[in-house]
């Protein structure tokens, strides 16, 4: 009897929850966890506090993501004492840091097991041992090595679904902990990706978002020569998907071939997430990003002129060590020149083990907060301006849901802007509609079908 079968015998009436922190990659890992837990016979519940088995999938990219996990684990202690919680498992990036898991488990006696990223296959054995012998363990032995093709994510078969194409990162940006916790770049075989997409579209999915820490380095290390543009072409040829999105693109690896693909392939959405991180060439060098301010601006100009109606979004860090007012002005300048549709903006957070953690000239917290505020205000102006560009225009909308709390029909444009219909209409999720925009409300375009 394997551990899944053993658990089916004892899981009757037991509930589980999965709390996820961090990026889409973690969300995808949590879906794999759900698939395994359902197979073992446990019932899903949303509430961590009501579940018998609580699983926390962690993120360590910034300090505040870690603080949230400490808070939640602290709160679960009482549930453990009351007997409701029978197993608390903490896994993912935070545990993957050198020596972290053992220390975490000795600090929190309520934690029964610590596992790594992509460790869903280990859950049945781990949980069985906790439930039957109260065995506590930290096991980070197999994580980050291979992509486990047997671990399929649980799917809601929404109109838009995420599909992982590669994981890990070789870039070692000096502020970033990801290469240490997610390991080196590994790409999934195209046949496995195509199989997964065909399975999704057969169940109603219309749009896929291809996920990877750096999708532009997809295919490195394959015997057959096949890069990210080739993968997009293959997906267009061999599946019925109606729209293709992807994240994240590293500016240093965005090839002219890929720009042509974005421009020419009608299935590829006209939106690109292109993290700049800083506008200062000096800081970019310190960050080990591999491009200058000028390179980045030229790349954006090139995308805009070749692709036409494209919207760019970005990630920006303020207060990287050594960032002066002049450097920060360069960041503001890039934001004003590129005019992003949206941006994720962060205060630099020291990550143990990274190069930047030991750099001199760490920036004061007050200065970081002030710069972040300035940046948020500036970006808000361009987010609004981007949406307003579509007033009185007709856009193509993929309907994602027909019943939401506030509106009847909600979908997205190719450029990733949200659109709602102003009145009730007979449409279905998955429909592609032409909508004339006549109003903008808090960044949502509102219009009617034409
Ligand atoms: N501090 C602040 N932001 C960070 N990011 C990555 N590491 C750090 C850090 N140490 C941001 C980057 C990245 C995004 C996912 O998180 O902007 O693109
Ligand atoms: Fe982190 Fe840089 Fe890799 Fe992105 S490219 S995951 S920021 S090291």
What does this structure look like?
With 450 residues, this protein is of the alpha/beta class. The protein folds into four domains: 136 residues, Methylthiotransferase, N-terminal domain (Rossmann fold, 3-Layer(aba) Sandwich); 115 residues, Transcription Regulator spoIIAA (2-Layer Sandwich), CATH 3.30.750; 119 residues, 2-Layer Sandwich (Transcription Regulator spoIIAA); 56 residues, OB fold (Dihydrolipoamide Acetyltransferase, E2P). It has 13 helices and 19 strands. Strands 2-1-3-4-5-6 form a six-stranded parallel beta sheet, sandwiched between helices. Helix 7 runs parallel beside helix 8, helix 9 packs parallel to helix 11 and helix 12 packs parallel to helix 13. The site of iron/sulfur cluster (SF4) has 10 residues, from helix 6.
Main sheet: strand order: 2-1-3-4-5-6
CATH class membership of the largest domain: Alpha Beta
Any guess at the CATH architecture of the largest domain?
3-Layer(aba) Sandwich
Bound ions, cofactors and other small molecules, one mention each: 5'-deoxyadenosine, iron/sulfur cluster
Helix-and-strand structural type: alpha/beta
Question: What is the strand content?
Answer: 15-25%
CATH topology of the largest domain: Rossmann fold
State the domain count: 4
Question: How many runs of DSSP E, i.e. beta strands?
Answer: 19
- Mean pLDDT, all residues: 93
The total count of helices amounts to: 13
Mind summarizing the main beta sheet? 6 strands, parallel
How far the N terminus sits from the C terminus, by CA atoms, comes to: 60 Å
Helix content: 25-40%
């Amino acid at each position: 009897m394997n551990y899944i079968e053993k658990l089916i015998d004892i899981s009757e009436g037991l509930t589980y929850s999965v709390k996820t922190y961090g990026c889409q990659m973690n969300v995808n890992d949590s879906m794999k966890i759900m698939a395994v837990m359902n197979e073992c016979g446990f019932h899903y519940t949303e509430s961590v506090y009501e579940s018998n088995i609580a699983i926390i999938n962690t993120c360590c990219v910034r300090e505040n993501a870690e603080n949230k996990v400490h808070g939640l684990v602290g709160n679960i202690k009482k549930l453990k004492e009351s007997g409701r919680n029978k197993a608390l498992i903490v896994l993912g990036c935070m545990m993957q840091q050198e020596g972290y898991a053992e220390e975490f488990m000795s600090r929190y006696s309520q934690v029964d097991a610590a596992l790594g990223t992509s460790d869903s296959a280990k859950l049945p054995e781990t949980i069985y041992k906790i439930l039957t012998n109260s065995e506590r363990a930290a096991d980070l032995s197999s994580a980050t090595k291979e992509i486990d093709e047997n671990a399929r994510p649980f799917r809601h078969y929404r109109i838009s679904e995420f599909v992982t194409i590669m994981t890990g990162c070789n870039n070692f940006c000096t502020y970033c902990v990801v290469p240490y916790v997610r390991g080196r770049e590994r790409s999934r075989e195209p046949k496995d990706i195509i199989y997964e997409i065909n399975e999704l579209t057969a169940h109603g999915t219309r749009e896929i978002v291809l996920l990877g820490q750096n999708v532009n380095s997809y295919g490195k290390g394959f015997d057959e020569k096949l890069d990210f543009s080739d993968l997009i072409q293959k997906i267009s040829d061999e599946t019925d998907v109606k729209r293709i999105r992807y994240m994240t693109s590293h500016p240093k690896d965005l090839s002219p071939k890929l720009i042509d693909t974005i421009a020419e392939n009608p299935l590829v959405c006209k939106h690109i997430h292109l993290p700049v991180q800083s506008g200062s060439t000096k800081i970019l060098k310190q960050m080990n990003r591999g491009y200058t301010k000028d390179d980045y601006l030229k790349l954006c100009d090139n995308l805009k002129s070749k692709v036409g109606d494209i919207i760019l979004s970005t990630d920006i860090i303020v207060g990287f060590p050594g960032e002066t007012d002049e450097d920060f002005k360069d960041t503001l300048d890039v934001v004003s020149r590129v005019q992003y549709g949206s941006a994720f903006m962060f205060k630099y957070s020291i990550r143990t083990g990274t190069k930047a953690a030991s750099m001199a000239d760490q920036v004061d917290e007050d200065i970081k907060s002030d710069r972040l505020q300035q940046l948020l205000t500036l970006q808000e102006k361009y987010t609004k301006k981007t949406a307003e560009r579509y007033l009185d225009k007709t856009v193509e909308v993929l309907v994602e849901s027909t019943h939401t709390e506030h509106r009847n029909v909600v979908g997205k444009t190719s450029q990733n802007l949200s659109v709602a219909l102003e009145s009730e209409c007979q449409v279905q999720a998955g429909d592609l509609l032409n909508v004339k925009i006549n109003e903008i409300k808090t960044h949502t375009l509102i219009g009617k079908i034409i």
